[in-house]
Amino acid sequence: MPSLIQVCEAANAAIQRGDVSQAEAMVAGSLREFAGNPNLIFIQANCAMLRHRDDEAIGLFQEVLEKAPEYVPALVNLGFIHRRHYRIAKAREILERAVGVDQQNVAAWVTLVGSYVNEGCPEEGEKVARQALERCPQAPDLIWNLSLLLLEQQKYREGWQLYRHRFESSVLRLPSWATSDGAPPRLQALGDVRPGDVIYCLGEQGLGDEILFASMLKEFVEAIEQRGGRVCFEPNQRLRQTFSRTFPGCVVQGDHASKQDATWLCPIGDLGSFFRTEQSCFPDQVNYLTVGQRQVFDIRNHLLADYSSRPLVGLAWTGGQRRTHQQFREIPLECFQPVLEQPCTFVSLQYRDDEEEVPRCNTSGSGSVVRVPELTQAEDYDKTVHLVAALDLVITVPTSVCHAAGAVGTPCWVIMDSRMAWREVGVGSSLAWYPGTHKRYVREKLAQG
Known about the structure:
Oligomer: single chain
Radius of gyration: 25 Å
Shape: globular
CATH topology of the largest domain: Serine Threonine Protein Phosphatase 5, Tetratricopeptide repeat
Helix content: 40-55%
């Protein structure tokens, strides 16, 4: 008969290899012999959490804590679940208990500090992050979260320097070739570039992030060429056509020989540490992606011919994923009904399937929305970029079309939550990254009129 320790080790090993069912079976069998054991109940709670049975998991973690009030892993996971459901105050209360018990517990600090990111209180979050780093100074996820909190406050110089540690965190990873033996070193400063050097610039993160970072790419290419070097840029495959037209001669395939010949590696997110270290470094007007004028003309003429000659307005009402605050980046389409009653042609910019939602909205109100999924849901994002360029205005929540609009110079109204990410910060109603075209509207204030 295996001991309690052996059962716990075997169940945890099963969880690690993704076999939650086996872990559940082991624990269920052992609880008959070791009834009420907090270690077994903790594993049972973890299994429920992994299956997203969060109410069940909360009850089990609370049962663990009734038996062992200072069981830090249970506190951490319980706090994590409350944070996942945006019960932020409750999550912080539990996580503060955890770090009070064990001030060197990295997981507790990371989850606590993470509860301040994109929550509208970065100043308070920065204080907690610095407190955490005093106790866990080499924790990459703490450094990553502090960088985001600094960028939210537009403390760009330190924020971008810490942002360079993002690939050491549990959130982001460089491709394996970029971390293998013989890979080129990361470029630390423009002054390190020598004549003949090849800098391999690597696209990263989501489409919107990559479009935003590309606002600095022209400056980067010029700075490298002034030093006698050359930039090879590998973007996301879906953006390859757009960037190839904008940066001819720089864009390469992922298997290009320059990857092996590169002197330096520079993920595109590193460009902020070179070119956007102060608010004064942001250009007054941004319009940096080149579009095919014939394609824009054809799309615009098609929409105007088929749907009247009224102004063309694009709408995007959902964005992000659960881990990127999706709940605060979506507005039901029905809420746009007063807008849809205006004398405009409204075009859906949804990249997700809107086949049911748009017709339902069109039959329930006096306004209507046009669908062009062949442009908005295409694998080649260049089609979406051209559609955005053909519009007179974009109204959107924070999502990739927000960045596409800024990149091609289409006016854009961004409806956002007061709990905004660093990409949406700015001065007054303007966005720092797209000051000439974008206006910010906080949806809580809009709801109040």
